Amino acid sequence: MAEKLRIRRTVVVEGRDDTCNLKRAVDCYTIETHGFGISGETYREIEKAYEKQGIIIFTDPDHAGEEIRRKLTARFPGALQVYLTEEEALKDGDIGVENASPEAITRAFERALALENQASSQLDELTEGDLFARGLQGAAGSGKLREKVARELGIGYGNAKTFLTKLNAFGIGKEELDGALRRITEE
Q1: What is the extent of the structural domain holding 90?
Q2: 3-state SS string over the chain?
Q3: Banded pLDDT at 3 (limits 50, 70, 90)
C-alpha cells in the first residue's frame, strides 16, 4: 500500500464519519463542525489552527456542505479549499465525504495543493470577458460547461461570479483554463 499523503494543516470536516474516512487516505488532524450549528468552542479551535498552521476546508459536495463551506470561508478567507465531485462522494444515494474512496480523497487533496502551488506563479487574472469568450458565461449551456470545467480543474462548481473568483483564487490562468476546456471537448 502506498504511503498516505501527510497534511500539516488542520482539515475541517462536517462530522465523525468524514474524519474516519478521510484518515483512510490522508495523515492529518481534523476538526469537525457537526453541521451548521458550529459552536463557539469549535470556532475558537478552528481559529487557533488557522492562525498557527492554516486550515483546509473539506465539506460534502451538497447544499449543506456548500453552506458550511461558505460560512467557514467568510470567517477564514485564507483557508485552502478541497473539493470532491458529487460522483466521487456518492454511495447508495447518499452524498458525503464519508462515502468517497481513499483514491478520490487523495486526488482531491493533490489537485488543491498543486493549484495552490501554481497560484503564486500565475499573474494574469481572468475576467468576465474571458468567461464570455469561452462560453462559460452568458451563453446557452454555460452553466453545464462551467460544471464540467470545475470538475476537470477540481475547484468545485459555482455560478459565473463564484467560478471566476475560484479560478483567480487558485491562480488558474488562461492557459490552464483553455487546457481544461480542450480536454473536456475531446471526451
Answers
A1: 5-102
A2: CCCCEECCCEEEECCHHHHHHHHHHEECCEEECCCCCCCHHHHHHHHHHHHHCCEEECCCCCHHHHHHHHHHHHHCCCCEECCCCCCCCEECCEECHHHCCHHHHHHHHHHHHHHHHHHCCCCCCCCHHHHHHCCCCCCCCHHHHHHHHHHHHCCCCCCHHHHHHHHHHCCCCHHHHHHHHHHHHHC
A3: confident
